[in-house]
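Is magnesium ion placement plausible here? Inputs below.
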Amino acid sequence: MIPTSIYSKKARIKLLIMTVALVIGASTVIYTNLLVAKLSEREQQLIDLYAKGLRYMNNADINSGNLVFIQEEIIDANRSVPVILTDENEEPIAYKNLTLPQKISKKRENNLLRREIAKMKLQHKPIVVEEPGVFKNYIFYKDSELLTQLRYYPYVQLTVIACLSLIAYYAFSYSRKAEQNRVWVGLAKETAHQLGTPLSSLMAWYEYMKGSPRFDNEPIVEELGKDVRRLEIITERFSNIGSVPILKDEPLKKVVENAIGYLRNRVSQKVAFYIESEFPEETTAKVNIPLFEWVIENICKNAVDAMEGKGSITLRITKSNTKNAIALDIQDTGKGIPKTKQEEVFVPGFTTKKRGWGLGLALARRIIENYHQGRLFVKNSEVGKGTTFRMVLNR
Ligand SMILES: Nc1ncnc2c1ncn2[C@@H]1O[C@H](COP(=O)(O)OP(=O)(O)O)[C@@H](O)[C@H]1O
Ligand SMILES: [Mg+2]
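Reply from A.M.:
I modeled the complex. Tokens:
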């Protein structure tokens, strides 16, 4: 018996990874926001100084020797924050740190500047520089390119990381699935191959005994024949799972009846089987009989186990919500599967039985989903009342 906790362990690891990713993402955003706030404050200071410089220039005596200093050290020092100086009617007078197309008409330049002013207004209130009664100017400004980039940087970075992780995850799970496929297929092929040799020899022996007068009236021969045929079926299953199986349009109800026919004689007489169909007898579905019978057997054997040998199993062919598909419900009156385990039962190795392998449902799902392009799931189940598995097959 393999421990049943693989599935829940996986869920816990997923949760852990998600939490770590969330913490990293959040701290990146918080840290950059801190930087943005600092840089923004500095730009604010720069622009305040700029305004002060302008104010001083306007008030100063033309001959003041400080003018050069203010022009060079304060006004020109702003090399990053885009600013537009306007008159009281918001008509542009001068601008700085804005890249406008070269060689354009004055009118077009004015238009572009006005559009910039509109954008700047959304970000910051303009600074007023005035000498009451003499003049009134506005300084419009916006965040520098560096600051803007920094503001969006963490989101861009996180998006890129998220995309990369997603791609990595899919690549990884694809390669893991491919590996699993090779194991299933390889093992099945090997089994079919190994069974082949003794089986053909057994078949030859059986034919010999059937024809020999020495074994006339011996019931053994008949029984031997049955076992040989059963071995043949098993070999066929393994060989089908080890290759690309051929799907044929088969009358579904007949196929189900045949599959149950074998089981019926091998389980307790207290288990009743019912086969029902909402469709005409001859309605077909695309199946590979050896593999499909294997699925029915696995599900019904589980049902018998769940009922502890007493109860009823109903197989109902019914309509499916999926287009061009047909459903087969297998309902039992067993102990049921709790909600939290209804997906886990399909995980290879999950079992609640002392001597179980936990491969029956994993195999059944593989057969239906990979080989029949259908679906297999727990349709509903109630603890203590019973379970219904649903298979959706293509018509
Ligand atoms: N019809 C059912 N009713 C209740 N439990 C079920 C039923 N079918 C499957 N299970 C649960 O799913 C588990 C896995 O089934 P399976 O993959 O066939 O492995 P195994 O039969 O070897 O345990 C079972 O151990 C059982 O707990
Ligand atoms: Mg089983």
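Short version: The mean pLDDT is 90.
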